[in-house]
Design goal:
Blueprint: H1 6-14, H2 27-43, E1 50-54, H3 60-67, E2 71-76, H4 79-92, E3 97-101, H5 104-110, E4 115-121, H6 130-140, E5 141-152, H7 156-169, H8 186-195, E6 199-209, E7 214-218, E8 224-230
Parallel strand pairs: 1-2, 1-4, 2-3, 4-5
Antiparallel strand pairs: 5-8, 6-7, 6-8
Helix pairs in contact: 2-3, 5-6, 6-8
Length: about 240
């Protein structure tokens, strides 16, 4: 069984042609990308690295990491966004980037311990078994490699802001983008990471100010958050 929800794949596939429109439904991804890119690059300098972006979609993060000098493989199970990502890379002349339609679990069997950095951003809340994704990311990482995740906390505040506020009131995202039951508490994701043999090094909250319409990183992880993990070096 592939660890994917067909409805989720179809949902993002239908919007694929708008992925690189910075004023489309993907505007929040374009707005937060410099923040998450700089955070990743600050902990694990990307230049010259071999990097895997899991659940890459249309390639916003993958493309920016390649432009930092990394050799990037972006993977996803939604065909249309991958085609958009490939087309954008060709049109933009982005070098050192490749895209594949493959499950992260299958890639883990094929290429264990192959990547200096692994990213899995805004994906875990869209799959049936997020722990399986975390385990596969850990397998794919080289000893000493960094592994980065981002997702949404599961609590009343996250429901109010990420679903009611962002999807229905502010209409920053299409209604139905997120399913509250799939949100993950930081303690749950931390346990998934530790069970996969990763060390949790840093948690950062992603905050949105509706007055300035700007995002920032901070210490409050009540709604959106990012987690930096590291695979221990071999003894």
């Amino acid at each position: 069984m592939i660890n994917a929800d067909p409805q989720e794949l179809a949902k993002f596939g239908e919007l694929a042609h708008r992925w690189w429109d910075a004023d489309s439904e993907f505007k929040p991804l374009h707005q937060i990308n410099p923040l998450r890119l700089n955070w990743i690059d600050g902990l694990s300098p990307l230049a010259g690295q071999t990097v895997l972006d899991v659940g890459c979609g249309g390639g916003i993060l993958a493309d920016s990491m390649a432009r930092k000098g990394a050799h990037v493989l972006g993977i996803d199970l939604s065909t249309k966004p991958l085609r958009v990502a490939q087309l954008h890379a060709m049109e933009a002349g982005t070098e050192n980037i490749e895209y594949r339609e493959v499950a992260v679990e299958a890639l883990a069997e094929e290429r264990p311990a192959s990547f200096d950095t692994v990213t899995c951003m805004e994906m875990l809340e869209h799959v049936p078994d997020p722990a399986s994704v975390v385990r596969a990311c850990a397998v794919l990482a080289k000893p000493g490699a960094w592994v980065f995740f981002s997702t949404l906390n599961r609590n009343a505040k996250a429901f109010a802001l990420a679903i009611v506020g962002a999807e229905y009131l502010l209409k920053m995202l299409p209604a139905g983008t997120h399913e509250y039951a799939r949100f993950l508490k930081p303690a749950e994701l931390s346990q998934f990471a530790r069970d996969a043999g990763l060390e949790v090094h840093q948690l950062r909250g992603l905050h949105y100010n509706p007055l300035t319409q700007r995002y920032s990183l901070g210490g409050n992880t009540d709604v959106n958050y990012l987690m930096a993990c590291r695979k221990p070096l071999l003894a």
